[in-house]
Amino acid sequence: MKLLVVEDDSDLRSALVEGFRHSGYAVDEAENGEDALFQYETENYDLMILDLNLPERDGFSVLEKIREADLEFKVLILSARNQAEDKVRGLDVGANDYLTKPFDFIELEARIRNLLRRQFIQEKTDLEVAGIKMSIDKNQVLVNETELKLTKKEFSILRLPINDS
After folding, report:
1. What's the rounded Cα separation, in Å, for the pair 74 and 148?
2. Given this model, what pLDDT does residue 119 score?
3. What is the secondary structure of 89-157 as a DSSP string?
4. For the chain, which has fewer Cβ within 10 Å, the N-terminal or C-terminal residue?
5. Cα(132)–Cα(68) distance, rounded to whole angstroms?
6. pLDDT the model gives residue 136
7. How far apart are CA 102 and CA 9, in angstroms?
8. What gap in Å lies between CA 17 and CA 87, rounded to an integer?
9. Is a pLDDT exceeding 70 seen at residue 77?
10. Predicted local distance difference test score (pLDDT) of residue 84
11. What SS3 state is found at 24?
12. Neighbour-count burial for 80-112, b at 16+ CB within 10 Å, e otherwise
């Protein structure tokens, strides 16, 4: 299994890389958001451990860019940001897990093993066709930028997949 550790703190990054290599993982590292995206686009990884407070491009921006192209790639956010709002945003943007610093390495390893065993399929949360925009996160439908007032049942019916067969 190949991991990408994205962390701007060189001491922590080195410790993580060494610990993962000792556990048998192939590991690459990046110290900023731009390097992280470059490596993600040029190499093949099974999982990314992503800090949020990064130079050049923050972790949220890195994750948003990845999710534009790949809804299945596994990302674990490892951040000092421990506010509920940051955790919710990270998960809403598309992280598969979120662990706050300080942390126990054995817990981080367990979370990684768990993520690597599972398969994730994430739905796009915003859809747009012919002037109709649907935001699944907000339970909202806009037609030509005018909001439709729908009941929960109407929204859930509209959200059903279309079967062409």
Report:
1. 35
2. 67
3. HHHHHT-SEEEESS--HHHHHHHHHHHHHS---PPPSEEEETTEEEETTTTEEEETTEEE---HHHHHH
4. C
5. 20
6. 72
7. 13
8. 24
9. yes
10. 94
11. coil
12. ebeeeebbebbeebbbbbbbeeeeeeeebeebb
Q: What is the location of CATH 3.40.50.2300 in the chain?
A: 2-117
As a residue count, the chain comes to 165
Distance CA 60, CA 91 (A): 10
Q: Which pLDDT does position 120 carry in this prediction?
A: 57
Is the domain covering 2-117 a CATH 3.40.50.2300 domain? Answer: yes
Q: What is the pTM of this model?
A: 0.72
- Whose tokens are 């706050």? That residue is 100
Dihedral over Cα of 93, 89, 39, 106: its sign: negative
